[in-house]
Design a protein that fits this description.
mainly alpha
């Protein structure tokens, strides 16, 4: 890579093409506005639970930007609908927080149950190994006795 020249125009063209393919627009200035395509199927259950734990809160309103006239009109509309929108969003946030709490407790109880089952199975496995060793020794002893009897 030391002898390769970096073509910035080519890199920028690739980035612009990628942005166009994803349907992103210039008014999406912050990372919160860009849709994040992570979901529960993209990783393990613990990763999905971590994601849900950090993203359960919903903002009632997005920051207003752009044309000052449009911003003013949107602010007026917000003030008129505030009594209706905010309680719904706050109830949804409460539900989301409770759902995350339940999911975490289910995951913890599931792992605790599995830990107990693994311990029980390991003990049973050790007991079976001991029994198998004992039976193999008895079998070897019986074979030795049988071979003695047949040689006489």
């Amino acid at each position: 890579m030391e002898n390769e020249k970096i073509n910035i125009e080519e890199i920028m063209a690739e980035i612009k093409q990628s942005i166009k393919e994803q349907g992103l627009t210039a008014d999406m200035l912050s990372f919160e506005d860009v849709p994040y395509k992570k979901n529960a199927q993209s990783g393990s259950a613990s990763e999905a639970l971590d994601y849900v734990s950090t993203h359960y809160y919903i903002q009632p309103y997005k920051e207003l930007q752009g044309n000052p006239v449009k911003v003013f009109i949107k602010k007026v509309i917000r003030k008129l609908t505030k009594f209706y929108v905010e309680p719904v969003v706050f109830e949804q946030n409460d539900f989301n927080a409770n759902a995350v709490t339940v999911m975490k407790s289910l995951a913890e109880s599931g792992s605790a149950d599995l830990g107990g089952r693994v311990e029980t199975l390991e003990l049973a496995n050790k007991e079976l190994i001991i029994r198998l060793d004992k039976l193999e020794r008895e079998n070897a002893e019986l074979r030795r006795l049988i071979s003695k009897e047949t040689t006489r």
